[in-house]
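note to self: dont lose this again. the chain is below, predicted strucutre after it. 293 aa total, dont forget to put it in the shared folder this time
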Amino acid sequence: MSNIFVPFEPDPEAPEPRRRRFQAVPARLLIPNLVTLLALCAGLTGIRMAIEGRMELALGAIVLAAVLDGMDGRLARMLKGTSRFGAELDSLSDFVCFGVAPGLVLYMWGLETLGSIGWIASLAFAICAALRLARFNVMLEDPNRPAFAADFFTGVPAPLGAICVLLPVYVELIGLPRLIASPAVAAFYTLAIALLMVSKLPAYSGKKLGSRIPRDAVLPLFVCVVLFVAVLVTWPWTVLSVLSVGYLAALPFSALRYARLSREHEARLKAGAAEFPAAHVADTAETRPDHLN
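---
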């Protein structure tokens, strides 16, 4: 008897299979990621402006990316929208905006006249930015860090490193002679900032700055912020130059404060370790039987 193939016919009374539905994502998780993507767009736009020779717009785009980068983390914490995806996206955006973009801007500004040396300086800055961001992601998961260490970065953070490394371009845009910020000086300066980013120098983070503001200081704070923005828009390169020099000058004070807090922390640990054995011996003596005391 020959085998006859009978095609499979679905049972009309069988229930239809359920379609897979994706879980809805809360809007509070999307807003910080959208801000991060806007920062990434600003960094990429800065690269385009540098290629076209419009250095002022290129610098403005990188500064805008730094401002947006400072907002996305605070928004995520305020909206309770932190996620692993957002952290990884933020790191990738920071590498492009504050590693690749400033290096290319400096190279197209004047480091290209140095040939391979200028390219090595730009390349070193981008690599150090990537290493600094990778180390930051690893240190977030370190449970052994003391509480006060959360107020400090290890090394100069990538956004501030990008703002500071562009100081030679600010100086030229102010109108000072290029001899002060020649390509050779800018190359050494770029390498110095790159080393500060991957160093173990404690840099104050300022994350808790402004978390609690007295009620009577709210209006003066608004006035100061408006005045700062007005001054920044009017004299952007002068303000950025002053901020860059001021931040670099404040790094030694940040390291001294970290060292003092570290000594106090170690002293408290030693004091606690010295008190524990004495208390342990006293408790043991009280709980032993009378004929052993």
